[in-house]
Amino acid sequence: MATKTKSASARTGTISYTTSNVFRAPLSKVWDAVTQSKHLKKHFVDDMEGEFGPKLTPVTWSWKEWGGWTFKVLKFDRHKEIVFCGPSMDGSYEITIRFEFLRKDGKTIFRVHESGYPQKELKSAFMMCEGWSEFHTGVKAYLAGVNLRKY
Questions:
Q1: Among 19, 83, 16, 71, which Cα is nearest to 45's?
Q2: What CATH class does 3-144 carry?
Q3: Structure pTM?
Q4: Mean of per-residue pLDDT scores for the chain
Q5: CB of 60 closer than 8 Å to CB of 48
Q6: Tell me: the pLDDT tens digits for 3-59?
Q7: Separation CA 56–CA 104 (nearest Å)
Q8: Distance from CA of residue 58 to its chain's centroid?
Q9: Residues 118 and 139: beta-carbon distance below 8 Å
Q10: CB of 95 within 8 A of CB of 116?
Q11: Quick check: 124 pLDDT over 90?
Q12: Given this model, what pLDDT does residue 125 score?
C-alpha cells in the first residue's frame, strides 16, 4: 500500500477549524478509542503502523481506498493532548492536527483542531472538517458497540 511520506514544504496556511463532541464515557475509554491501533482499526483505519506515545515515533494511518499517510508526532500528554503533523491530501503543504481531551460535568469532551490550510485550499479544509465530524460519530458508535462500517 502506498504511503504519503513526501515531505510537505514548510508552507502552511491560515485556515483552521475545530470539531468537537461530548461523550458519556470515561475519558480513558475515549482516549483509547481514538489513539490505540487496536481500536482505530475497528472503526476508522484499515491499518495503522506505530502507536501514539511519549517516544513521539511516527504513526501511519492507511485506508484501502485512499492509501496511507505518515504523521510526525510532536506532543503526547496522556489523557490530555496529542499533536501531530503530516502532508496534505496532495502533499503540497503540511497540516497540524491536535487531539484535545477534557473532563467536564461527568462527561468527556474530545476535540480535533486542524490547521495549516492555505486560502486556496478552503474546499479541502471543509472536506477534512466533515471527515473529522464523521470520525467523532464513528468513535461514539464504536464506544456504544455499534459497527458503522457494516452500513
A1: 71
A2: alpha beta
A3: 0.90
A4: 92
A5: yes
A6: 444 444 445 689 999 999 999 999 999 999 999 999 999 999 999 999 999 999 999
A7: 28
A8: 13
A9: no
A10: yes
A11: yes
A12: 95
User: Which cell is 42 given?
Assistant: 475497528
Query: What are the distances in angstroms from CA 14 to CA 40, 122, 144?
Result: 29, 10, 36
Q: What are the grid coordinates assigned to 57, written together?
A: 515515533
> Which amino acid is located at 135 in the chain?
F
DSSP state, residue 106: T
Domain ranges of the chain: 3-144
Contact partners, residue 129, CB within 8 Å, separation at least 6: 17, 19, 114
7-16, 79-88, 93-102, 111-120: least confident range: 7-16
For the segment 130-148, the average pLDDT, to the nearest whole number, is 95
**87: its cell numbers:** 502532508
